[in-house]
Amino acid sequence: MTDKVLRPPRRTRFIDGLNRGMALARRAGLADRPVLEKQALMDRARAFTGLEDFGDPWFERPLDVLLEAVKGEARLNTAGEWAARAQFEKVLHDRLWARQWFASHPEILERRLPHPVIVVGPMRSGTTRMHRLLSSDHRFTHMRSFETISPVPRPGFTFGEADSRAVLAKRIMRVARLANPRTLTIHPTGPYEPEEELGLLVSSFWGMKHEAQWWVPSYGRWCEGQDAVPAYRQMAQLLKLVGWSQQASSLRPWILKTPQHMMDLPALLQVFPDARLIFTHRDPLSVVGSTASLAWNQTIIYSDHADPHAIGEEWLRKTRLQIQRMRAARDDIPRERMIDVHYEEMESDWRGAMRRVYDFLALDIEPALPAMEAYQMRAAGLKHRPHRYSLEEFGLSPERVHGELGDYIATYGIAKEHRASRLA
């Protein structure tokens, strides 16, 4: 990307047309204005499912804060309001159905989650590639994309039969391509591709997924001051449910990853005390620029008032805080339980980097290499075009980013990437 491009891309006309159509439907009395109030949302979820038990009520605290931020800061458009209500209600439906599954099959919560392998790194630092390469090894268990979208099987789910959640995931991805095809260029996926456990944290209305989708800075700052352990306990319970629905052996370690773990390492390790950690690192120029681009391309779907410079400032701040918290938490982690892998190492010699990871895990890599090669070929087919972005689109400069995050670069020996090659 050249320095001449100073404005980020706009959204597709599909959303503009959808907004106009939904506004007309409201004026004609054919559609209501979504009510984004906690009690109304919970009452609708109870009525839809016929269930009452949402589980640990801790989730109501982040839900309250998120709803206030959505109403006061996000400035959602007509389609964005409808989508927000649908997302809130879907999470509440899943919480109710999860409790029903746990009650009818108590063996689910008795499943073990032994020594998971958890990839931890800033957004856009190569966590997805590392996660998917490891997920191709059948000695591990991983989530699939449709399961992070819908972690909880629907009532009536039967092992071995077609899963309606995969059908829903295909529909959601089709709509996402219409709304803004760049979002799937930035993070290519498919319903059955290995995917991070982000949706399991969303089950508690927790985490950066909301900040990357809506402009809700007050919610993000509130989360930064909270103890995340209850959200990670809910995540662990849902992992057991996902593993049970896959009929995966509870002896196989899970492969996990989401950038939220950078913020919450103490909570993560309290819930998963025997985890082994793979830390990924990349030049902050690419991390901040690519993350701001990801947030921009999602926010403009739901709001007509997104400010690229505000998004740039927020994700520079958030990246700095992620790194600070990660570095502080590492002081209490035994060195033999973690390994560092650099983005450029994976770019230049991914096999060599993965051999180092497998040595750390005390596993023979040879049985996994054919599946890893197959993933690399499949990934090339998923990513049809490169993700293009620049810091300048978001009011930032390389000098400022390196100035604020230079100590991170020096401490971990991170190679600086060529400024002109802002592709990821």
TrEMBL record:
It comes from Croceibacterium atlanticum. PANTHER family: OMEGA-HYDROXY-BETA-DIHYDROMENAQUINONE-9 SULFOTRANSFERASE STF3 (PTHR36451:SF1), PAPS-DEPENDENT SULFOTRANSFERASE STF3 (PTHR36451). This is Sulfotransferase domain protein. Gene3D superfamilies: P-loop containing nucleotide triphosphate hydrolases. InterPro entries: P-loop_NTPase, Stf3_sulfotransferase. GO terms for molecular function: transferase activity.
